[in-house]
Amino acid sequence: MKHYALGLDYGTNSVRCVVVDLSDGCEIATAVFDYPSGKQGILLDASDPNLARQHPADYIKGLESVVPSALEQARDATPDFDGRGVVGIGVDTTGSTPLPVDAQGNPLGLNPEFADNLNAMAWLWKDHTSHAEADRITAYAARERPQYLAKCGGVYSSEWFWSKIWHCLNVDPVVFDAADGFVELCDYIPALLTGTTDRRFMARSICAAGHKAMYCDEWGGLPDKTFLDGLDPALGRLRGHLYERAVTSDQAAGMLTHEWADKLGLPAGIPVAVGALDAHMGAVGAGIREGVLVKILGTSTCDLLVIPADRQLADIPGVCGIVKGSVLPDYYAIEAGQSAVGDIFLWLLHCLAPDTGGVPDGERFRRLGEEAARQKPGEHGLLALDWNNGNRTVLTDVRLGGLLLGQTLRTELHEVYRALVEATAFGGLTIMRRIEQYGVPIREVVNCGGLAVKNPFLMQIYADISGRPMKVARSDQTCAVGAAIYGAVVAGAEAGGYDRIAAAQDVMCSVRERVYTPIAGNAAVYARLYELYRTLHDAFGTRDWQGNLFSIMKDLIALREQQRG
Amino acid sequence: MKHYALGLDYGTNSVRCVVVDLSDGCEIATAVFDYPSGKQGILLDASDPNLARQHPADYIKGLESVVPSALEQARDATPDFDGRGVVGIGVDTTGSTPLPVDAQGNPLGLNPEFADNLNAMAWLWKDHTSHAEADRITAYAARERPQYLAKCGGVYSSEWFWSKIWHCLNVDPVVFDAADGFVELCDYIPALLTGTTDRRFMARSICAAGHKAMYCDEWGGLPDKTFLDGLDPALGRLRGHLYERAVTSDQAAGMLTHEWADKLGLPAGIPVAVGALDAHMGAVGAGIREGVLVKILGTSTCDLLVIPADRQLADIPGVCGIVKGSVLPDYYAIEAGQSAVGDIFLWLLHCLAPDTGGVPDGERFRRLGEEAARQKPGEHGLLALDWNNGNRTVLTDVRLGGLLLGQTLRTELHEVYRALVEATAFGGLTIMRRIEQYGVPIREVVNCGGLAVKNPFLMQIYADISGRPMKVARSDQTCAVGAAIYGAVVAGAEAGGYDRIAAAQDVMCSVRERVYTPIAGNAAVYARLYELYRTLHDAFGTRDWQGNLFSIMKDLIALREQQRG
Predict the structure, then answer these.
(1) Residue B226 above 80 pLDDT?
(2) What is the 3-class SS of B22-48, one letter each residue?
(3) How far is A340 from chain B (nearest CA, A)?
(4) DSSP secondary-structure letter at B5?
């Protein structure tokens, strides 16, 4: 009998399940479920653009939908497929996406009492309601526990665990008090599948804990009680309802219960790996190893690098997180990222330039890319900052906004699109430069995620602006594949899986033939544009910049004239 | 028999003719002709966004169309109308819009030899191809004749006469050499109607000469030959082919020829007033007098004030022009303006957010205004600079671009629309402050032009941001009415016209009942936003600003949160 692993990937708008054949890495089936609640799965509040929540019921409905349909697809596509050949399951989710839960580990949002309360739902990663709490945690930690901040780039984010929990306490003590504790989505799903939602038995992901909750073995796990008491005694008390240890995803969270096995059509008792955040699993699925930068290009981006844990590694200012074991056991993972990339392009089409003509997004993007690709760099005369959703790396500041400058009376939509794509590329380059500046070399860049696969126009600009070849991971769903790799590893070689991550990656990861190489003639122009980008970036994004911007618009016009010939 | 005057108004995209009843100021007929050439009447060059030309044949076709149709309309609408009652004609046009002409005063663009040469056509006011020449004239005049610059705000513009002529010489000496001279459109039309296109007989407008060609009686008319030789000896030679004196529009350029009288259906021999620029005539038609700021709100804006010529008036830095007699004889006119206002909103709809659903512009603007009006000031979190077409006053710099900042992933089109309307209001306020700072009080603001009439949303924001009531001139076409006023004045009271401008204005000008008054609660928020606007304005627009912009995005977000409650 052939062996398979399942990867479950909980994204921002949908959940997907892939079935991977462990003999050759083929993804033999994929099923997707769009969350039915809110706007594209996100619960919004018209009066507060910072708010983004999700309904926990969507997660469960998604599970019940995607696994059976993936298995059915597998049977349809592969005559010899047998669900009994599934040896393990891996899970990744967005994060920090904490859910308030009761003493049995059930999300409060499923309790009819809280059905209408957004604070009882899952607090999606991109919820920024807790920016004030984040600022206070940063200021307080800078004074009391600078070591906590050093691992997360110097600033604690409003997207992260403690900011959100504390904001819940501040704005809705009823929900906070009704909660026995708070659970990351990437811990909740494996717990649900393995019947370990009781916090005494629930495995906690080092990935979510380390990157989002200031967990580190160096200082004994979560932030100490004295520190939390200093924020609010209720947080100090909450610490005892959380966890002592977090573990890597090559550990099993438990075994699939009979109940879920029956519901999903899987063998009971197979191991479910400890969960991890989607990007980190995506990096594994894209074949991350030392010297390879994996860029996960989606609504936002995540840039990941690993270096062996026995190597010296300085803290890198402005880089979101350095956590041992969050991507590969025995490696430090260095995580950086941009808070909005694909989301900026979607904003352009949906909010700024909505079209009632009914042309689908994909087709509109294709046309815009085609028109924009006809231009030379600088020909549009525009410059943009990629901060519509704040700046995660290297400024770690959510209280920033987008910026577009240089528009004339003839600037067209495709030119703005190009300027926004370039802005995200400049943002990405800023991250690479910062990391290399701190002694971590980048020898290769592998991209994955929707944009990498679907947008050759963007990939070429990324190559031109970074001056590096851009490779694209073979799989369309590296996060789910990464999860499946861990599913195979927790099963182990004896059961038909793998003993080591690298061995599973060798079979399950590769890159596509088409590599985007930098066009030499564009480099000089983009180098000048990057200088201007950095000036704007520093002028609007840092306290210590001092200067004058009189020449920026003139430089852009001169460049435009030069490029138009 | 009743008496009438005709006003001919050559705008950017069309020419119109109004017939005014001199007994009561009623506009009894109006005809419009859209220029057929190019894009909305403008000849463009895909490779150079600075280029904007017009075909001289369009001007003549327009004349032959609008006068007969206006007269026909007048007959249809007013049974006792008799064309023989028309006592005078006034003309206004865009400018500086110079045309190269041959020795007989015929535009080269009508010569088949030059049919395909854009440089032989009329150089429309908004052509910016000569920015390099403008910079050189400014630098050279600053050194050699600072008094020339002092009257035009310290900077000679690429929109103006000498920049354009010189650019023609530099890029197309064949056209330059083929031209006997160059004629402003506002001089060409009266000359055509009165058979005085020969330069020895052609009357020249003090308005165009003074505002655009550095003409001033103080220094003996046009710039002296030595000065022009210093730019290029060919310009020095050209001076002798131009004119010695320019006159006010209460003078007749000549009498209507039999040929044109027959062609148009008018009495031969009636006087045609010396032409003037559209905005200046518009101010007259809006009822300008001392202390009244007239704002002509169209694709661009023009702000005009007059003070008696016997009063002391300092040169005002950054204000486009101070010319004696260009609006009212015996008054200095102070001209300022914004290079793009309506054009920015059209850009938003046509270029940035084109819609294939077929909703007409007017309806789209109405809906956007309606949605935007529901917001409080600052609620969108945005700030824009109104520089898509450069900045005419107070920076007098065409090498600037637009800017929009503060956009999130949820910023919608109507919010950007509101931010752009606000940006144009902030730009207008900057002009008012500069003029008052130099001792010219503004007691009343009367608006005219398309936007003033059609866009109550915009007018309210203008009132809120300036903190002054906004009145709107009664006529929809104050430029044409202003021209008709001068037509009545050159006819004189004995012929059924008027002897004095003020007497004609008393009959022909008034304001509408609806006055937009500032909403008190908005003032404080707009004062804060104006501070931020000024910071951006100075940071990007002046050489001497020094500082840091770190707080701008944060201030906008704080204001947004405050306003959303």
Answers:
(1) yes
(2) CCCCCEEEEEEEECCCCECCEECCCCC
(3) 8
(4) E
Q: Return the amino acid letter for B378.
A: G
CA atoms of A206 and B321, how far apart (whole Å)? 69
Chain A residues with beta carbon closer than 8 angstroms to that of B340: 409
Q: What share of chain A is helix, strand, coil (3-state, %, to 5)?
A: 45, 20, 35
Tell me how close the Cα of A404 comes to any Cα of chain B, in angstroms: 5
Contacts of B174 (CB under 8 A, 6+ apart): none
Q: Do B404 and A406 touch (CB under 8 A)?
A: no
Query: Which 3 state secondary structure label does DSSP give A301?
Result: strand
What integer pLDDT is reported at residue B355 of this predicted model? 84
Domains (range + CATH), chain A: 4-279+478-508 (3.30.420.40), 288-340+369-472+519-565 (3.30.420.40)
| Per-residue pLDDT tens digits for B121-180 | 999 999 999 999 999 999 999 999 999 998 887 889 899 999 999 999 999 999 999 999
Q: Which residues have a Cβ under 8 Å from the Cβ of A513 and sit 6 or more positions away?
A: none
Q: How many CA atoms lie within 13 A of B524 on its CB side?
A: 5
pLDDT confidence of residue A355: 84
Quick check: B544 pLDDT over 90?
A: yes
Nearest-by-CA chain B residue for A390:
B408
The beta-carbon neighbor of B540 closest among A388, A546, A549 is A549
Q: Which amino acid is at A314?
A: A
Sites in chain A below the pLDDT cut of 50: none
Closest CA to A413 of A452, A460, A459, A365: A365
- Measuring CA to CA, which residue among A156, A101, A94, A93 is closest to residue A130? A156
Does the CA dihedral B532-B534-B540-B546 come out positive or negative?
Answer: negative
**How far, CA to CA in Å, does A153 sit from each of A166, A314, A316, A334, A336?**
21, 11, 6, 10, 9
Closest CA to B286 of B26, B70, B15, B480: B480
Under DSSP, the state recorded for B349 is I
Q: How far apart are CA B311 and CA B307, in angstroms?
A: 7
What's the pLDDT score for residue A358? 84
Residue from A352, A399, A556 to probe the interface with B (highest B Cβ count within 10 Å): A352
Instruction: In whole angstroms, give the CA distance from residue B355 to residue B83.
Output: 45
Does residue B30 contact residue B477 with C-beta atoms inside 8 Å? yes
**Is B196 within 8 Å of B100 (Cβ atoms)?**
no
Q: What are phi and psi of A82, to 5 degrees?
A: -135, 120
pLDDT confidence of residue B321: 83
Q: How far is CA A173 from CA A104, A113, A278, A537, B539, in A?
A: 20, 15, 30, 39, 45
Per the model's pLDDT, the better-predicted residue between B422 and A126 turns out to be: B422
Interface test with A, best of B397, B548, B552, B562 (most A CBs within 10 A): B548
Structure tokens at B466: 């300036």
Contact residues on chain B for A410, CB-CB shorter than 8 A: 49, 347, 351
A322's torsion region: left (phi>0), alpha (psi -120 to 50) or beta? Answer: beta
pTM for this model (two decimals):
0.86
What CA–CA distance (Å, rounded) separates B189 from B60?
9
> How large is the greatest C-alpha to C-alpha distance in chain A, in angstroms?
71
User: Is A542 within 8 Å of chain B by CB?
Assistant: yes
| The pLDDT value given to residue B398 | 85
Both tokens of A165, joined, read 């929990």
B546 close contact with A: CB closer than 8 A: yes
User: What average pLDDT does chain B have?
Assistant: 96
In the three-class reduction of DSSP (H, G, I as helix; E, B as strand; rest coil), residue A107 is classed as strand
What's the token pair of residue B424?
């144009």
Six-digit token string for B317? 């830095």
